[in-house]
Amino acid sequence: MGMFDNIKQLGELKKMRDQAMEMQKKLGGIKITVEHKGVTVVMTADQKVVSISGEQDFDKITEAVNEALKQVQKVAAEEMKPMMGSLGIPGM
Hints:
Oligomer: single chain
Order of helices and strands: HEEEH
CATH architecture: 2-Layer Sandwich
Structural class: alpha+beta
């Protein structure tokens, strides 16, 4: 393996890093709203809670947040499929 191979690998790593940062920014811009048992949770696709409103019952809030997490994970997986395929990761 020569020096040019190492430079090529660094370039590929930078490209992957740039793609990952672009995807993170894209996911941060996608908002999902979930209403569950009287609680409304708004969460970004990069799993950050934007707001919680409605019922003040802790158990209901916990359930609603968990439901929102499931939803945003599905969205994020769908958004990332094209990127994973271009990186040569099987099954994506």
